User: Fold this.
Amino acid sequence: MQLVKLGKKGQVSLPKAILQRAGISGETPLLVDTTEDGAIILRQAGVYPIEIYSDERITSFLEEDRMAPVQAEKLGRALKK
Assistant:
């Protein structure tokens, strides 16, 4: 456990060794929470890119997923077994 000091603006600098042990680097977003007993909890936030698909993009996905008639026939026979 290491001692850190709260700055005038309410900021805390976390020791590099603590960040390395937690696997945190760079400008990693963190979630901050408190417990009923007053503990402060920091957790890495999961940030995932989101893509909004256009109608054209959805159409291209459907075309790529479409089975050839021969494949559909083979699948149909396999599912009947």
